[in-house]
Amino acid sequence: MRAPLYWTLVVASGAAVLFAFAPYRLFWLMPLLLAVPLALSARAGARPFLTGYLWGLAAYTACFNWIYHSLHTVAGLPSLPAAAATLLLPAYLALFPAAALALTHRLARGRALLAHLVLFPALWTLAEWLRSWLLTGFPWGAVGYSQINESPLAGYAAVGGIHAVTFLVALTAGVLAQLPLSNTRARLAMAALVAAAWGGGAALSGISWTQPVGTPTRVALAQGNIPQSLKWNPDLQQLTLERYFRMIATARADLLILPETAIPLFLDDLPSGVITMIQREAHAKKMAVAVGIPRRTDDGQGYLNAVVAFSDERLPYYAKDHLVPFGEFIPLPSLIGWIYRYMDMPLSGFSRGGSAQAPLALAGQQVAFNVCYEDSFGEELIGPARDATLLANVSNLAWFGDSVAMDQHLQLSQARSLETGRPMLRSTNTGMTALIEADGTVKALAAPNTTQVLNVEVTGRSGLTPYMRTGNLPMLLLCVLLLVAGSLLARRR
C-alpha cells in the first residue's frame, strides 16, 4: 500500500469516529473504525506509534472541535491562537492511542493473534483509564461511550463500568483486524466470541440491579437559555434574575432545579430580599428549590461552583470538586496566567468543594449533585450515589454554542445512570435538559437552545450495582493479567 493511501485511511477513519458518538449514535461504526489503525499498523514497515497518534489526533479534533467556539466566539481569543489552542487537547490525548498501538506490536513480537485479541484490548483499555485521571483527567471520547445506550454492550456498564464497555469494543475491533489473517475454523471461533460478548450485554441489559424506593416525585428542570456572551454582563443580571424567578413562581412541582451558575452573582451579593422571595414561593408550594450559584468559601478566601438549596433556611449546598483545568482553575498560573488577559473568562479560579459531600435532602429524595463535566468520572460518583436515591447534573454548555458537545455530555450522563442504577436529572442553561432513567434511557428531553421548564415525574432507587461494589479495579486487574500473559506467551516461540 502506498504511503499517501495508508495515511489517508488512518486519518479518515479517525475523523469518522465523530459519527459513532451522540448525536449520530452509529455505535456499530466504532469497532470498524478502531480496527483500521490496528490492522494497518501490522503491515511490514508500518509505524505503529505515528499511526495511532494521527488516528487519535483526527478523532479527538473531530469530536472536540467545539473548543474553538468557546475560546474564540465566547472567550474572545483571536482566531489563530484559538485554533492552535483547540489542537492542544487532541494533541495531548492522541498520545494514549499512539502508546497503546505501539506497545501492542512491540510486545506481540509478530504474533498477530496475541496482538489483536489479547494485548490490544488490554492496552487500549488501560490507556483510556490512564487518560481519565492523569493531569486531572479527560474521559470524553472514550470508545465505550459510543455504545451508550443503543448497543447491547451498554449492558456491561452496570457490571464493570464504562471501561468494561471500552474493552469489549477494542476486543471486537481486534477480531475484525484478525479475520483476514485466519482460517475458516478460527474465523468461526472468533465470530462466536463476539456473538457471546454482544449477546451477554443484551442479557445484562434486562437486569434491574437497583430497586424503586418511595413514591414518584414531581420535578421541574429549568433551562434558562442565557447566552454566554450575556450571562456575566452586569447590566443584564436583573433580566436573568427575573427570568428564573418567573420559573420559580410558575412551577408546580415537588422539586425545582436551576442550572449551573444560573444566578451570575455570589450568594452573599444577591440583592436584599431575593432569597426571602424564593423561600416564600417555595414554602407556599411545599416545593424544594436547588439553584446553581457561586458562593464564597466559609473562610472567605476562595469561591465555589455550588448548588444551593434555597428552600432550606440553612442554605445547604453541594460544591463542585473536580474542576476543569484552564476553565475553572489555572494550572501553573506563573507560566500561563498571562493568556487570560486576552480572554473574557470570569471566575476562572474556583476552589474545590471536597470529595466527601453528602447528598442533599430535597422533596423526600436524597439527591447527589454533580456539576458540569463531573459526570465524566464514573468512579468518583460511586461514593455519593451509595447514599442517594437520585443523581442530578447542573451544567452550562453555552460556552460551546449549538454544537455536539451538548449531545456528547448527555451520553456521559446516560453512562452514569447505567453504572449506578440511579435516575439522572439534568438541568442545563442551553441543553440537554433531561430525565434519564436508571437503565440509561432518556425519558424526557427539552429542546436545546430554548427557554422552558421540563416537567417530569421520577421515582428514586436504592441498592448497589456490581460496578458500585467494585469500581474499576476488576477491569484493570483483568487488563494487567492479559497484558502480562500476552507478553509472556509472545516470548515463547
UniProtKB/TrEMBL annotation:
GO cellular component terms given for this protein = plasma membrane
Task: For this UniProt record, give its keywords in alphabetical order, as a comma-separated list.
Answer: Acyltransferase, Cell membrane, Lipoprotein, Membrane, Transferase, Transmembrane, Transmembrane helix
Q: Does the keyword Translocase apply?
A: no
Matching entries from InterPro entries are given as: Apolipo_AcylTrfase, C-N_Hydrolase, C-N_Hydrolase_sf, LNT_N
Localization (cell): Cell membrane
The main place the protein resides is membrane
* Pfam families for the chain: CN_hydrolase, LNT_N
Instruction: Provide the top EC class.
Output: transferase
CN hydrolase domain location is: 222-460
Q: What is its EC number?
A: 2.3.1.269
Topology relative to the lipid bilayer, per the entry, is: Multi-pass membrane protein
The UniProt entry's coiled-coil ranges are none
Q: Which residues cross the membrane?
A: 6-28, 49-68, 80-101, 113-134, 154-176, 188-209, 471-490
Q: Which family does it belong to?
A: Belongs to the CN hydrolase family. Apolipoprotein N-acyltransferase subfamily.
Could you tell me what this protein is called? Apolipoprotein N-acyltransferase
The record lists the organism as Crenobacter intestini
